[in-house]
Fold this sequence. Notes:
Low-confidence stretches: 1-103, 223-233, 248-257, 281-371, 569-574, 1085-1092, 1199-1211, 1395-1402
Largest sheet: 6 strands, antiparallel
Number of helices: 63
Helix content: 55-70%
Shape: flat
Amino acid sequence: xxxxxxxxxxxxxxxxxxxxxxxxxxxxxxxxxxxxxxxxxxxxxxxxxxxxxxxxxxxxxxxxxxxxxxxxxxxxxxxxxxxxxxxxxxxxxxxxxxxxxxxxxxxxxxxxxxxxxxxxxxxxxxxxxxxxxxxxxxxxxxxxxxxxxxxxxxxxxxxxxxxxxxxxxxxxxxxxxxxxxxxxxxxxxxxxxxxxxxxxxxxxxxxxxxxxxxxxxxxxxxxxxxxxxxxxxxxxxxxxxxxxxxxxxxxxxxxxxxxxxxxxxxxxxxxxxxxxxxxxxxxxxxxxxxxxxxxxxxxxxxxxxxxxxxxxxxxxxxxxxxxxxxxxxxxxxxxxxxxxxxxxxxxxxxxxxxxxxxxxxxxxxxxxxxxxxxxxxxxxxxxxxxxxxxxxxxxxxxxxxxxxxxxxxxxxxxxxxxxxxxxxxxxxxxxxxxxxxxxxxxxxxxxxxxxxxxxxxxxxxxxxxxxxxxxxxxxxxxxxxxxxxxxxxxxxxxxxxxxxxxxxxxxxxxxxxxxxxxxxxxxxxxxxxxxxxxxxxxxxxxxxxxxxxxxxxxxxxxxxxxxxxxxxxxxxxxxxxxxxxxxxxxxxxxxxxxxxxxxxxxxxxxxxxxxxxxxxxxxxxxxxxxxxxxxxxxxxxxxxxxxxxxxxxxxxxxxxxxxxxxxxxxxxxxxxxxxxxxxxxxxxxxxxxxxxxxxxxxxxxxxxxxxxxxxxxxxxxxxxxxxxxxxxxxxxxxxxxxxxxxxxxxxxxxxxxxxxxxxxxxxxxxxxxxxxxxxxxxxxxxxxxxxxxxxxxxxxxxxxxxxxxxxxxxxxxxxxxxxxxxxxxxxxxxxxxxxxxxxxxxxxxxxxxxxxxxxxxxxxxxxxxxxxxxxxxxxxxxxxxxxxxxxxxxxxxxxxxxxxxxxxxxxxxxxxxxxxxxxxxxxxxxxxxxxxxxxxxxxxxxxxxxxxxxxxxxxxxxxxxxxxxxxxxxxxxxxxxxxxxxxxxxxxxxxxxxxxxxxxxxxxxxxxxxxxxxxxxxxxxxxxxxxxxxxxxxxxxxxxxxxxxxxxxxxxxxxxxxxxxxxxxxxxxxxxxxxxxxxxxxxxxxxxxxxxxxxxxxxxxxxxxxxxxxxxxxxxxxxxxxxxxxxxxxxxxxxxxxxxxxxxxxxxxxxxxxxxxxxxxxxxxxxxxxxxxxxxxxxxxxxxxxxxxxxxxxxxxxxxxxxxxxxxxxxxxxxxxxxxxxxxxxxxxxxxxxxxxxxxxxxxxxxxxxxxxxxxxxxxxxxxxxxxxxxxxxxxxxxxxxxxxxxxxxxxxxxxxxxxxxxxxxxxxxxxxxxxxxxxxxxxxxxxxxxxxxxxxxxxxxxxxxxxxxxxxxxxxxxxxxxxxxxxxxxxxxxxxxxxxxxxxxxxxxxxxxxxxxxxxx
Length: 1402
């Protein structure tokens, strides 16, 4: 029967449940000078128990325990198997079977076992027939033994510190007993319960004096210290920390005594025994002199803590057996003890415990004075471990000990931590090679503070839901990329996603692709971790924009549920989207993908090569005002490559204007200590052994980590650092390295390294460097198919990758660092770089097939050629051919919504055209210039696009040319005029001009005869009446380009005329409808295109909710729908309709009584969006409404410089807001005057907007009632106006009770208040107005009804009732956010005197 194991709880390690703890506690409670004989007796009791256990006794007799001074207890001992001790330790779970403890089921089982037994069990555990498994077991056992050694060293240090007052007086046999293998107990986790093999040890206890140490381990970041072991498992290092959990002495000494060297030596002997299982012998050349009065090996007394022990006594014999060290080892120790009075050993030295004894050493070399300890390398252990043990043992040489021997236990403990933290480098890798040094270890040194700052910022973003940005700057090689990558694990732990991309100096023509690729990668990450239900939710939220997202983010399809398939549509492919559309669409995507539960870290490196549009896209996501984009943006850049005019500085300032938390992190060189750690772990040498080398490297590289590694590798390449196979460690000449003359630039080292390579290898490096940080295998194969570069791919695979210059992931060859690419590119002489790019580009062009090759080959080809000046082209025919390639690349880029590259390609195509291109190559010049203008417009370069279009129109030959580019140019020009706002009239006249050229004969003057308007409206109405619904739906899609153009320009004219000429807008809209009906042309007029409903939504919503929708639907719902129309308009590339929808939405929110303070903040955000997207007309509209809201709040109004024309147009279209503001501020005369101006504009389109007419009538009627009640002049006219307004409101009440019931009731109450004496009826109407306002959620109009009721009862003298209404009005106005109205109500409350008469009347 197998003995029951001892299961120890980590919390109850010192409970008195079995004899071992009893002995330990007894010793810890007593003086440290307890009787050594008693100690030996107690230890014998352990032997007796153990022997009884091994012999199969089931019970330890009670009377045996009674002889002890400990508490009586009884232990049940399980039966031993017949094979005895070896069978016990075969299963390490058997433990030291002295008893049984309860273990928490939720915690791993902890086994306690004497060190000697544990060590023998370890030897048995490492046996396995499979060599690979045996290797794995031995490596795990090595980690455990080093961990135990670390714990023992910590215990010895603790004892040395706590007993410093007398440790130096310890006798040799006392120190041996202290460091005996039998003086320690190991605590470890039961097999199968540890998370990782090799880290099962949880603590080590010293029996006497009793000290317990708890060993805690923590995993290192996975990117810092993990490799795949040869046996197939992942070997990871850990941080190991020791915690003293039990000891008897509380104070610590300030300094160590010389006994520390003795402890180091004995620790080395003990570790040697743990790893080899063999005892140590000594050299017999060390002997006692004849002057010795006593032979320490004779049968004499030995002093122990001031007491005498007979050498021949059983106590002494047991001690010798317990210690397990030969007597001649005692002689060796005494010969080599460092406590000497004089440097001359011939004069002798006192022996501990023997005052008259002398030691004498033969006149031999000190190399002969050597302990007979075989190095651990001879037993197959790693050199680093062998060196650690040897340096510990060498501490026994006293003054003769080598320089490498340890000076203190602290240093030894530190080296053990190094082994445990980096086992893959110090223990498992085998003999190091140049390749292992070149690959490095992936660790990040000296950046703990920066890591903490980044981690804190990420968790702050995750907790608050507010995006932040951090910029990490520093020289190349300082570790920016590795720093940010180090927190990716924390991001994943938080349930977030981390994506990283970097800009490339050689790919500046397509920078927007870098940012879009990052968001494309994000789609894959989210799809991998999202459940089917989660993907369905995301699909529902993104369904409206998925057709547009697929244009810029192809991986968005991975987010779709498995049962959802995208329907490809030609209309989606032809939909015009621009840069603003991309920004807005990505904003909406991030609103869905990011949240506090799913935070996102976006890292873009090398921002010094970023362009304006890429940064603007990031800014639009960070500054999104409508969603919760829970994102931490981290940007890395080289501050030494960013000047004062760089777009990055403007990006910083823009983020601050949007109140985005932004911080800067400066990375400099690492410290000397961190440099020492870097070189130590790179070479696999203890830090103390390479300190001199690391100091030199630090001085020469200024602490730049990448520079330091490259310098180190160059020293190895030149054999300045060599690996000694005999000594099994690296060697160097520190003087030679100190004399190295290097520059402070790593490029110097890398170039020198590359220049010694073969010519074909250098050529390959130069060629691939011309493509940037990476080159795809497709391009490499294309080049390898040409005669001049036929060996390129083979050289990449066989030399470049193997030498460590590049990595290959199966798709791309990538330089391991951008400095390596810079060095390779620097091999090309400056005067030959253009020729290199040109030769590469022409080689690709000669092997390019537009029908077979993908677009990446086309882009790579033209990117290389475009780096050359036009002077390199031989003749006009070659220039035209290259221009055609640029044009083809630009068209493909526009198709994929890559606007910036498209603009660059089209610009290059135009620049290559000959001077007489408009005559010699008219068609090609026309289409190149048009698409150049279109690409510039899509990127937001409105002025540049306008200049190009002016040139197109100047050189254009016919309006209706075959290619239709002239008509398209005019249409694009109208859009540009609208966006520029100052050119609204020019946009209007351009539409009229083009339509007249197409034969529409529109009036060119600003006014239209009323008779003409009535006539065209009548004709159009008649045509509508003659056609049934089926006939209207059957109107076909037009194929005539002329009719299509007419419909297109009428569409634009309807918007422009509404803003620039609202009084004649109905005429043009009627002409548009008349043309569509007479020519049977559908509004979906583009040939070959079936417009999707979502593309038409902005225009449909604009017409519906401006005219009919507001009359019949709740005004709050109308505002929400117009926000949706704004979003769709921005997505589909229709910023003009989007802007108009947003303007009307804000206007309706003001009239609906939205909280003014919130509304003001939203308007400020909308202004920023309008500024981002260059929507100047929208900016003007929003500034006007911001002024109105500020006046209603009572804030000071900021003056803005507005264009007079734009201001007038908007004031006319939103005249009702001005009247509303004047009314609530109490300017009734002004309201009446403005309403008269409104009535005078009977021919304006404003009269055709029902809600506006009704709302102005409502305010005008209330103002007239107020003026009438105060006896103003023209009283009858005021009374008539109230009745007229009430008539309009009562009719409107039939359309929408929600919008107009409260207004009609309030106007009726106001009329009754000035015409009737029936207070009950009046109060009933006021109450009806208050309740209906509250029901419709018009908080401002509820306050207005209460205010007017209060004024009525105040005038009637019923002040208590008036006071109640005033207080209710104050509450409503406060909820509305109108501080100025709150102050008015406070004033009214103060002026209302409450008296008994008024109370009785109420």
